[in-house]
């Protein structure tokens, strides 16, 4: 961990410029009647979970180019998240991936969490790889497998994930199912769906009553003909059958080309079934790039729906779990995560600028130009001073990446963990 | 109408070759234990409705190149459908489009239907264009419109469609909603959905208890940012709210790139919510080409699901309404429709060849290669002799397009209706 | 035309707020060493041509909802463009579409152009529709037609376009070819290409030596299996065969899903073959929406290439012709055009902020995060005060749409031209 | 290797059925004046190279499920290809991947090649992964790298590939460049292109005068913002700069959604620049599935272009190198390859059925329906008896997969090579 004095020292020479820009932004938004302090408070409160698997260098099936200093244990992963949270004050929780992150010493881990003021956001099951010593293979599926033994094994693994999560205070199980088929005829669509529904029901039964099950969807990869849960409609139908604790998880990279994701977000909010979000950036498919790096306007429009839903009493469940789910093939993973969080906060801040009463008026009058311009005005406003102010008020760095580099953190990590360290699970 | 002797004369010189190919196909399939006569009977029984709007030359927003002889009235449209049905015995019904096809003299129309042994398949409402004298405009929506007057007008129009249909013995209302938005901010996603749901409920209420409402979905066009009903999940959720008479309609051209449509078909069958089908061909979007012209394997895989569902008692509703919904920019519309029906029958025939018990065994054993090869074997088999035999047994032409050309029907139609006749509605 | 005093009066109450924001922006950018006055000068100088066909309400193949007051003649189209140019000072030229815009009285038109300080940007040929009395039909192609008579007719039409253009001082012929096929087998790919190349050569020969031929490409629509010129590679190969006066035209809506358009722009600049640009916005295909409405970041990245090319001596031809090519189904066409121009100017202004020497350093060092952040910093900066200052310095309105509405211009046009006036050509 | 008697024994009980189907097919096609023996001869002569890397179980970035018995050395890879070639007589060559397949003992390898009657088809360089001890990293590119040392290393590696190939009698170097960028700003498009062109020129210079350099393109993956060679236009432009020995390689999985690949094939044939083909199957992206498994009609249309080009004297270079390039995540790799070859031969056989003179007549007359039906007729004809006859005449199995299973070859390989053997390179 960084000494807070270091951050203080880092911020000092940047304060003048920050105040210059912040003052202007406050004036600008104040002239429109916006409560800037309230926006900053909301930004301070906003938290995005960091997935344990995004702390090391990712890769594609074609290769991997690690840069060293990757966390070699769950404890080191927590250290990395703690560091990020020190820098930006917006990542106070971690998503675990079982079996990669099975805690060895729960009590010690709990203590570390407390010391670093972190929580466990959710546990993620893994039935897309075979683990050593595992009796049944997932080559042809897990919760949807034709053989009961494989299904049962996958069910028990998910329940085990819940147990690990309970020990650490988590309340969410995220199920991403890689099940599907690569060729026509391989899988019977209707039967595979029903087997999946039945398996999920068994897991749901075993879940504590204050837990949420998030059901992710994805149209393709690792299967390239069909996925058992390819779209929001399938996730939603499964949730309906399971009960109110089952919710849909939207991953930004899990859609066919040209999908209007923000509309899906609105749809699920309307149904009270939007449970969680996996942020990343994509241009072609599940590219797992930095959030907001490719389609910043789309990211804003998604937050526009989220904020709209959160402010609408008719929306029965607007408590969405936010998590990054990206891979870092090119950039330093920690820098990439700092960028992603910054882009997310920026999109959120812009969505908070929208005058929803006025927007409703324009929409009612079908004044398309004015309605669009209202959103564009929010999008085009430079809200970075507000995000930086939030960093500052959280005790973080005005420029998290700058501080990360100035402190030569990667170099330190390489010294501590080695040039060839590999993040567990990757 | 063609004198049946003419078809007889046309077929005579083709019979030798037909018998040569049919005999072989019977032997080939018989060796595998298939009941060829049963397959032919099913092909004879299979009927695809013809949409009234597909009988004239279509066009794109860039232009239209009519070829003449287009039907100038509903009566002439029935004549064209009757002719098609004479030629292939597979199109004994027509889908009406209101207001383009409002019958002037119901009794006369009923008589014509009887004489031509045709029925009215469904009525299709139109709220994507403004009609003269119409008080409210649909420029900004119809069933989802922000203004109650526009919604009410659209509701009444749909109810009026039902009334027209009742008078003619139809039992199906097809709702394709062009509502949506071209720009972010234009429409409030959640409110537009709810207004649509409420409007549909009002129509549903007014529908006789033996009618079915088919709810179509489409991701884009004529709106290019969002459509109120963009995907099967939205259609399905609306059907759930309305009741069991509401069913989803799948149009082959209404999907985002790379969508696995056959899986959606299986999904909806599983839910007992697949009510209808609009056949056409597409490579890019809603291209409205000849069915089967672009992705014949996909068409086969869709029929594979349909046949699988029809033979499975667990599927509670497999009574799917089949209709062509295409546009004919390049080809003679009647030739295009004959081709489409032939391609549909071919895909159906191939799906009937699949040994489902054996397929289930391969699937259970995860023998991917054998399961796939089983489907491919059906797909690669040349079933055209079976389709032609079905034509023959229905009193049609062994080669419908050949007969159409030999009889110089287009030339006759041009003489009767003129070179510049325009199909009503286009 | 608006009296300039009206614009002055309109601007007066907005000046305080404008100066507040402009001063800040100048300070902000000045601190980074940017010459804000130079940027504003470049914005003032930047001009985007308005296409004559975008001044009326467009539509889709499903319908059209005109709003009235559309220009009924070429003269009225010039009036509309003159009005736009008064409001934003950035649209001092018009693209003509032949035969929709064949001038009746050339001398009078020249005088009108002079009075309104407008020029003719380019002439666009039309071989995608049949005109009355035209001997050969373009149903099956024009420059690529299998029949020589049709090809010759299309060649002569293009040459005639050049002649009309010469009379009015234009120097550019834009060729968008709708030729292609809807079905496999319809067209012989290699022969169709060669016929097209030969036809273009005949037109090229007839073009004055100071003219440029722009060759547009489009992957689909109005043909849905193949287009003769579907991609930049085909346009480029044709240009290579024709000569240096032939250049590629990029239309933002003419690409397959997920295409990296900015890279194509860079590629063509590298080859000295980027001749022109058609701006519009799209989410799915050739949606023809307001420029920048859907993918503002992409628009910025495209301008980043354009500015980069313009500043690089190695780029032999960076004189790109800019034109809007959109359709207005929902919005008032004139408001849509004002928005488009504003979004274009904003993207251009942001691209001018990029420190290219520093970017080159980051790229050389493969400092991916810093290189990306440099671009993002420019993109996230609010440049609207600079664009407004450019409007102001050009004698236009600080808020062109606001002025347009305040002056009730649409209402005036409806009074003058009628509620049912239809723009010629639509 | 299988004793040929084994194949003879395997075929014997299948001969009756084969002759029944073959006789019919000969009659059917003979009635149309087709020379069936000539078609079979062409099928016998047709050869598709097998890539060394497709002999083991592939995988995705999410996991890998090997089935055992994979070849542990180049020698074992040759054994596998020899076996395939025994079974289908259509795969008499192998593509090497350097450094995975650097031969240790060239003389021994030459002898093995001779004994198995195999040749080396091409050598493929690898600059998308870092090899141990390699001084410069390819993390940020190879031939396009900003640093000369990395470029030089990649150039030398390619030249080394040529040297290895020369020793083994190969004549083709395939260059697939993974270079590109994941984020806007990371790479300067124009400079990266020029560096690539210069690097390729250095390799081209070092290539013997009877060699061909194949330049592959791919729009995305492993880079997800831009690839240096994303499309055929870029490959083509590089070939033009290099010289006539440089040719474009088309990989079926390397295109954006909805691309008309057969048209690209025709285009490159027209330019005399189609040098090679990588066959695989895809629904979404570079899915690397069994060739023909997803879009069999597209595969036929591609062969339609290839056959058309091969028969046209105007096409100056129709000597296309055919290779499979797939990955086998689900199926036994050898079965998958047998399927792929069968699908390729089937598509080729169908393309040989097309009456090109008649097609030209229909095209000249713009008889769209007849032209399309001519192609469809070929596609719908069941040509499997011809493919099987070709197997038979080559001394292979009438049912290669059946023989592979009957001989329990995978089980043998597992016994010989072990359950956990991993194919080198994967």
Automatic annotation (TrEMBL), chains A, B, C, D:
Q: Which InterPro entries match?
A: L-rhamnose_isomerase (IPR050337), Xyl_isomerase-like_sf (IPR036237), Xyl_isomerase-like_TIM-brl (IPR013022)
**Regions annotated as coiled coil:** none
Could you tell me which species this protein originates from? Hymenobacter busanensis
Q: What is this protein called?
A: Sugar isomerase
The domain of life for this entry's organism is Bacteria
Q: Name one Pfam family in it.
A: AP_endonuc_2
Question: SUPFAM superfamilies annotated for this entry?
Answer: Xylose isomerase-like
Q: Please provide the record's keywords in A-Z order.
A: Isomerase, Manganese, Metal-binding
> Which GO-annotated molecular functions does the record name?
isomerase activity; metal ion binding
Annotated ranges, domain Xylose isomerase-like TIM barrel? 103-288
């Amino acid at each position: 961990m960084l000494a807070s004095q270091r951050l203080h020292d880092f911020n000092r020479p940047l304060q003048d410029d920050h105040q210059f820009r912040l003052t202007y932004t406050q004036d600008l938004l104040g002239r429109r009647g916006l409560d800037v302090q309230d926006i900053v408070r909301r930004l301070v409160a906003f938290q995005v979970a960091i997935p344990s698997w995004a702390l090391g260098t990712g890769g594609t099936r074609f290769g991997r180019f690690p840069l060293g200093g990757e966390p070699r244990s769950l404890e080191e992963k927590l250290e990395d998240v703690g560091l990020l949270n020190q820098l930006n004050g917006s990542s106070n929780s971690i998503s675990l991936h079982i079996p990669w992150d099975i805690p060895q010493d729960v009590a010690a881990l709990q203590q570390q969490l407390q010391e670093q003021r972190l929580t466990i956001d959710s546990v993620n099951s893994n039935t897309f790889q075979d683990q050593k010593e595992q009796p049944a293979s997932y080559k042809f599926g897990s919760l949807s497998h034709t053989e009961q033994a494989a299904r049962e094994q996958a069910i028990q693994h998910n329940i085990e994930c819940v147990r690990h999560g309970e020990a650490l205070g988590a309340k969410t199980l995220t199920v991403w199912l890689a099940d599907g088929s690569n060729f026509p005829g391989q899988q019977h669509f209707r039967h595979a769906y029903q087997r999946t529904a039945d398996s999920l029901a068994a897991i749901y039964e075993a879940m504590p009553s204050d837990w949420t099950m998030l059901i992710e969807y994805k149209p393709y990869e690792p299967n390239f003909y069909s996925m058992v849960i390819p779209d929001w409609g399938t996730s939603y139908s499964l949730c309906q059958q399971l009960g109110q604790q089952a919710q849909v998880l939207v991953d930004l990279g899990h859609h066919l080309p040209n999908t209007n994701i923000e509309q899906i977000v609105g749809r699920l909010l309307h149904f009270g079934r939007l449970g969680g979000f996996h942020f990343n950036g994509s241009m072609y498919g599940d590219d797992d790039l930095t959030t907001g790096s490719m389609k910043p306007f789309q990211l804003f429009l998604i937050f526009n729906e989220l904020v709209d839903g959160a402010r609408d009493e008719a929306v029965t469940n607007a408590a969405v779990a936010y998590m990054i789910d990206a891979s870092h093939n090119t950039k330093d993973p920690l820098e990439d995560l700092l960028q992603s969080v910054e882009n997310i906060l920026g999109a959120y801040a812009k969505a908070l600028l929208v005058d929803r009463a006025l927007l409703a008026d324009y929409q009612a009058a079908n004044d398309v130009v004015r309605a669009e311009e209202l959103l564009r005005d929010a999008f085009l406003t430079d809200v970075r001073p507000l995000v930086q102010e939030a960093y500052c008020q959280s005790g973080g760095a005005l420029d998290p990446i700058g501080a990360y580099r100035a402190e030569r953190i990667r170099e330190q990590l390489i010294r501590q963990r080695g040039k060839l360290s590999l993040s567990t699970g990757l």
